[in-house]
Amino acid sequence: MQEEFLPFARILAQEEEVSLSAKPPEFTPANKTQKCSSQSRSSLHLCHVTVKTMDKGEKNNASEEKTHILMENGRSSTEKHLPEQKKNEKEAKHIIKNIQWSPCDSFTVQRGWQQIEEYISQTWEIHEGWLHWSEFLQEEELKYSKRYHYRACFSIPTRRKPIPRATASVYFIIEISKIKPATLPVEVFFTLESSRLIHRPGQCQFREKWLKDIIENKIILVERLTSQ
């Protein structure tokens, strides 16, 4: 029996020696390099993908910030120019019209009457229903100037009352200086009936309400006198 089991025991012993003598594969530098290169490739790939994603986010954020900045700049620019635009519109509405008055050396009574008519028709914004006529009144001699007096009479007839119940007069004075250069334009000012306030062309805007107030006051006065 011992002889039969002897070869089998030897075989087992040899197999154990072989198994013990077999060592695990050593981690050589080549394997290390290969492993590291594979890990670095994967890490680089992951980093590359992450960078791309961040770039897209940054671009979106940058574009949003740029759009916001442009909108703010446009808004601030609009707000900056809005007061100027309103100011220009306001100034345009309050531009006082005037005409080019003749110089003193070329003035005549007829020329003065023509320029008064021109001034009324071109600068006074009144309803077309108003009718008027004008005339020369007198010449006034002063120490340092001459004054020429004119009157413009206004009324507003209607179909029911073609003959106006009252009229409103505007008195013009054209002054020629004796001491100033004759090439300077004449000085012009006017007053309303029953008023001492002096108005100068180019410095005040004529109002239609002034004529209406004069006529209404006259009508009220006439009605009171007739009712007594």
Automatic annotation (TrEMBL):
GO terms for cellular component: cAMP-dependent protein kinase complex. It comes from the Eukaryota. It holds the Pfam family AKAP28. InterPro entries: AKAP, AKAP_28. Keywords: Kinase, Transferase. GO terms for molecular function: kinase activity; protein kinase A regulatory subunit binding. This is A-kinase anchor protein 14 isoform B. It comes from Patagioenas fasciata monilis. The lineage of its organism: Eukaryota, Metazoa, Chordata, Craniata, Vertebrata.
